[in-house]
Amino acid sequence: VKANWIPLVSLVLALLAVLIVFFNVPGDPLDRLKIVIGYVILILIFFFGLIVLINMASGKIDLTQLLAEGDGGASLSRFQLLIFTFVISLSLFMIIVAAKPPVFPAIPTEILTLLGISASTYAVSKGIQASNPEATKKKAPPTHTAAPPPAGPPPPPPPAA
Amino acid sequence: MDLLTRLAVIEGAVLLAGFFGLVLYKIVVGEISLAGLLDAKLPDGQQAFSPARLQLLIFTVAVAAHYLHAAYVSPQHDTLPGLPQGVIAALAGSQAVYLGGKALSTFLKPLLKKSR
Q1: Burial class (CB within 10 angstroms; exposed 0-12, middle 13-18, buried 19+) of A93
Q2: What is the pLDDT of residue A142?
Q3: Fewer CB near the terminus (10 Å): N or C of chain B?
Q4: Helix or strand or coil: residue B39?
Q5: Whole-angstrom Cα distance, residue A62 to residue B62?
Q6: Is B98 in Cβ contact with A76 (below 8 Å)?
Q7: Which H or E element spans position B48?
Q8: What is the pLDDT along chain B (116 residues), one digit of tens a residue?
Q9: Whole-number Å distance between alpha carbons of B17 and B115
């Protein structure tokens, strides 16, 4: 299904944002401009995210190999990186929402170290795999080729006319 | 500005829930496969259960749960909660064990097998 409605909805929302700012926001033009840019960025990021989500859900963006290793099994280092990414982004969101007014929090060095360790493990693990490709190669499926005909006596010569 | 802030929070919640929910759903229904997550490949090509992978998985889940709880109950809203140095050292050690096991099964075991 083509998502043709997305640009139209974006345009309507952008016009709505401009109307809200025009009628409701007091202050000088620079303040109004800041708020309009805020709305535009909000709408843009939302629809970029929505398009990615729709494509992931419909299978156009293929996630089947998200955790797969070279040999076809699941990779623990990829899984770990996925878990840490989820947990830290969720924590970041909770902290931002809890603050009144919302502010972007400082990121402690321990968290950067944690992500660094996790990503380094993934990189080293890939290095180990790459240095010995035979150990992690996928088993090739059996190939079915036509067997050569058995060697036998040569065919008899055609009868003389 | 209040409306803009509220919309930004709603948007963040929708996108985060969408991405996390979709990946979790695909893991649950098996579209993203977790088969072989705790298995290591032996030099002869066979898959076998790996205790090094199990301990790393346990450490990972424990640290993730601990951190999520710390973020939920954190009284400070201007910084993310930190992690104790001991936890980071333990996780680094766990990763080292995992990588050591992987290197052992990839490099050393085939060499020992050849020398016999």
Answers
A1: middle
A2: 43
A3: C
A4: strand
A5: 30
A6: yes
A7: strand B47-49
A8: 588 888 899 999 999 999 999 999 999 999 998 988 888 777 666 778 888 889 889 989 999 999 999 988 887 778 898 888 888 898 889 888 888 888 887 777 667 666 66
A9: 54
State residue B18's pLDDT score. 95
Q: What is the mean pLDDT for each group of 10 consecutive residues in chain A (161 residues)?
A: 71 81 78 83 89 92 87 84 92 88 87 89 84 57 46 55 42
The amino acid present at A40, given as its one-letter code, is V
Question: Which of the 8 DSSP states describes residue B106?
Answer: I
B109 touches chain A (CB under 8 A): no
Contacts of A39 (CB under 8 A, 6+ apart): A14, A17, A18, A20, A21, B4
Nearest residue, CB atoms, B22 vs list A56, A89, A121? A56
Q: Give dist(CA A112, CA B79) in Å, integer.
A: 13
Set of chain A residues whose Cβ sits within 8 Å of the Cβ of B47: 73
ipTM entry: 0.85
Torsion of CA B103, B108, B110, B114, to 10 degrees: 170
Could you give the dihedral angle defined by the CA atoms of residues A118, A119, A120 and A122, in that order, rounded to the nearest 10 degrees?
A: 90
pLDDT at A147: 45
Secondary structure element (H or E) that encloses residue A94, with its range: helix A76-98
Residue pair B105/B46 in contact by the 8 Å Cβ criterion: no
- Other CB atoms closer than 10 Å to residue A95's CB: what's the count? 23
Give the integer Cα–Cα distance in Å for A11 and A15.
Answer: 6
